C-alpha cells in the first residue's frame, strides 16, 4: 500500500502534482474563471462580507498564513489568521459580515472544531477547507471546499498542505471574482497560471537528489533556521515545523526582516540557515532585501541553503547550497518552495534513524483540545 516507497510520507510527497491537479479539477473553466458551486454561501452574502478570519492548527495554520496574502491582495478585504486554540478564548469580534475559513486535513481537529462552533454562534459564515469527506468540521460548516489530496497517512502533512494552498487561492480568487476588484485581469491570469502549477511541482520533485544529499550531511547538527519574507515567511515556518516533528531538531522560522531585531544573535559558524527567496520579478524590493539578509548571515559564518527561482542569478554567489524552483507568480511560490523543505525534513529524519510516518508523541488527528 506504500506503492513501492519506504514510507507513506515519500509516497505522499510524490503524489503532490496529482493532488494539486485533482483539487483544481472542475473548478476552473477554459476562460479563466472559477466555478465553485460548492461554496454554497450566496454571492450576495459574499459581497456583504467585510472581514475574513482564517482558523487552523499546525501545518493548516501555515496554509492560512499564506491565504492572508492572497485574500487581502485579490479581494482587498482585511484578513486575520489565528491559531484555532487561541482564537476561541480571546472573545474575537465576529458578526454576520464575517467569513470564517476553517482549514483542516482531518476535519476532526478539536481546537479547530471548537473555534468554528464559537464563530457560528456569533453569526459568522463558516467555510471549511477539508480533505476528509463527511468529517465533523465540514458537517458543522455552512459550506465546504474539499481538497482532493486523497487519504494522507503519514503524520507529517505534505500533500494535504499543498492542496490547502490551492483551495485557499481558489477561495481568494473566487471572492475577488464575485466581489469584482480592480484585479480582474490579474485574477484571470493567475487562474491560468494555476492550471500549469502541477507540472511545476512535478519538476521540483525531479531535482531533489542534491537536497537529500545535503540533508544527510546535516544529520549531526542540532539546529537549523529558516528565513523568508512575504509568502516565503510561512513557508519558512512550515519548513521548521516539518524538521521539528520529523527530525526532532531545534528548528525555527523567522521573517527575514526580523533578523536584526534579535535572531541574528543565534548565527554562528556553520549554522545551517535555509532562506526562501522571493522572485526577483514583480516585487523586486523584497528580493533585494533578502539578498542583503543572506549576505549578513553569511558574513557571520552561517551555511546558507538558498531556495531561489530558476534564472535568479543574483543570489548564486551567496549560496553555499542552491536549490532551484520553477518560476511562478509571487503568491503561488509556496506551492513549489515548500516541496524541497518536505524532502529535506524526511531525509534528515531517516538519516537520524527516526520513524518517519509515526513521529514520537504525535497523532495524525488531534481530537482533544
Ligand atoms: O487535520 P488538521 O489539518 O486539522 O491537523 C492540524 C495539525 O494537527 C496538523 O497540520 C499537524 O501540524 C501536522 N502533523 C503537521 O505536519
UniProtKB/TrEMBL annotation:
GO terms for molecular function: glutamine-fructose-6-phosphate transaminase (isomerizing) activity. Residues 42-181, 214-359 form the SIS domain. It is an enzyme of class 2 (transferase). Keywords: Aminotransferase, Cytoplasm, Glutamine amidotransferase, Repeat, Transferase. Its EC number is 2.6.1.16. Its main location: cytoplasm. It is found in: Cytoplasm. It comes from the Bacteria. The active site is at 364 (for fru-6p isomerization activity). It catalyses: D-fructose 6-phosphate + L-glutamine = D-glucosamine 6-phosphate + L-glutamate. Homodimer. Catalyzes the first step in hexosamine metabolism, converting fructose-6P into glucosamine-6P using glutamine as a nitrogen source. This is Glutamine--fructose-6-phosphate aminotransferase [isomerizing]. It comes from Streptomyces edwardsiae. The gene is glmS. The chain holds residues 247 to 615 of 615 of the full protein.
Amino acid at each position: 500500500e506504500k506503492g513501492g516507497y519506504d514510507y507513506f510520507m515519500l509516497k505522499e510527497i510524490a503524489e503532490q502534482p496529482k493532488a494539486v491537479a485533482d483539487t483544481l479539477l472542475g473548478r476552473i473553466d477554459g476562460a479563466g474563471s472559477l466555478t465553485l458551486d460548492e461554496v454554497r454561501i450566496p454571492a450576495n452574502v459574499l459581497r456583504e462580507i467585510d472581514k475574513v478570519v482564517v482558523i487552523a492548527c499546525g501545518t493548516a495554520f501555515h496554509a492560512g498564513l499564506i491565504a492572508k496574502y492572497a485574500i487581502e491582495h485579490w479581494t482587498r478585504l482585511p484578513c486575520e489568521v489565528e491559531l484555532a486554540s487561541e482564537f476561541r478564548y480571546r472573545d474575537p469580534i465576529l458578526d454576520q459580515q464575517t467569513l470564517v475559513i476553517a482549514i483542516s486535513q482531518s476535519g476532526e481537529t478539536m481546537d479547530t472544531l471548537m473555534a468554528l462552533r464559537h464563530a457560528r454562534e456569533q453569526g459568522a459564515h463558516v467555510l471549511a477547507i477539508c480533505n476528509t469527506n463527511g468529517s465533523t468540521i465540514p458537517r458543522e460548516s455552512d459550506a465546504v471546499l474539499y481538497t482532493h489530496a486523497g487519504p494522507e497517512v503519514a503524520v507529517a502533512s505534505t500533500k494535504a498542505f499543498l492542496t490547502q494552498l490551492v483551495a485557499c487561492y481558489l477561495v481568494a480568487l473566487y471572492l475577488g471574482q464575485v466581489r469584482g476588484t480592480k484585479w480582474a485581469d490579474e485574477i484571470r491570469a493567475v487562474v491560468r497560471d494555476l492550471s500549469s502549477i502541477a507540472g511545476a511541482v512535478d519538476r521540483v520533485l525531479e531535482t531533489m537528489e542534491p537536497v537529500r544529499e545535503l540533508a544527510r550531511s546535516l544529520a549531526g547538527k542540532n539546529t537549523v533556521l529558516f528565513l523568508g519574507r512575504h509568502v516565503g515567511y510561512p513557508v519558512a515556518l512550515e519548513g521548521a515545523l516539518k524538521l521539528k516533528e520529523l527530525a526532532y531538531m531545534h528548528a525555527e522560522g523567522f521573517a527575514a526582516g526580523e533578523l536584526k531585531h534579535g535572531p541574528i544573535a543565534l548565527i554562528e559558524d556553520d549554522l545551517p540557515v535555509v532562506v526562501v527567496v522571493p522572485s526577483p520579478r514583480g516585487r523586486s524590493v523584497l528580493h533585494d532585501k533578502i539578498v542583503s539578509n543572506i549576505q549578513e548571515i553569511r558574513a557571520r559564518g552561517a551555511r546558507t541553503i538558498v531556495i531561489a527561482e530558476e534564472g535568479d542569478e543574483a543570489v548564486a554567489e551567496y549560496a553555499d547550497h542552491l536549490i532551484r524552483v520553477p518560476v511562478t507568480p509571487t503568491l503561488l511560490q509556496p506551492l513549489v518552495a515548500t516541496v524541497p523543505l518536505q524532502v529535506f525534513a524526511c531525509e534528515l529524519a531517516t538519516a537520524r534513524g527516526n520513524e518517519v510516518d509515526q513521529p514520537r508523541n504525535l497523532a495524525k488527528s488531534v481530537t482533544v483540545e
